[in-house]
Amino acid sequence: MYYSDAIVSKMLNDNALAKKLDSAFVGVKEQVIEQATRIQDGAARMAYYISCFTDNYQDVCSKLKKEDVRFFEALYHFVKYRRMISELIHIYVELILKNKTPQQMEYIKRSLMRMNVNISTSSLTTQSFAIGVTMVICLGSNVSTGIVGKVSKVSGLSVAALNLYGYIQEAAESAERLQIMHPEYYQALYIRKVEMMYFLVEPVFLKANFFMKNLSSDDDIANVIFLMAR
Questions:
Q1: Cβ density class 1-23: b for 16+ within 10 Å, e for less
Q2: Average model confidence (pLDDT) across the chain
Q3: How many structural domains are present in the chain?
């Protein structure tokens, strides 16, 4: 009986260890793939810069330089004010709440309460309600450790040249997608010189499928906020 218990105990311990190793391996694998992809993107961007030496690719060179300048302007803003994530989300929330009456915001608030999303606000002005919605989204599970980790790496500037160019390339591609799929939101970020930081929060928006939403009704707005906050 003792030996049977010992064997079962060992099997359970081995199984638990195997699961931990599998989990660790998956985490490491994902980090390696992410790092390799970023370095590859950085190498591709540097290759684009080589094309600047040819007259036929001056437009490419001009585009790259503009993206670099915009990236570092946004990064400076980020490092200086330290609230980039909430600012990016708040700008979008203000857009979708624009021209909403207090009665409509009350309806959205009650709809969210039925979905277990509670908006804390002292009044139902657009500004106050937008701040409450932004806080709920930022505290939600969608703003994951992955995004927090990326924010830390980008703001820390502790990245090698290829890594840095990888981030800029990722930011540029993300901004281009946003410009095509949601011009109004892109323009709002561009005016504030922060569109190149949108890539930090893009996963939150994509998971909420907000590009596909017409947001023609207050229910649509409530559903998008719910998806972004959960």
A1: eeeeeeeeeeeeeeeeeeeeeee
A2: 75
A3: 1
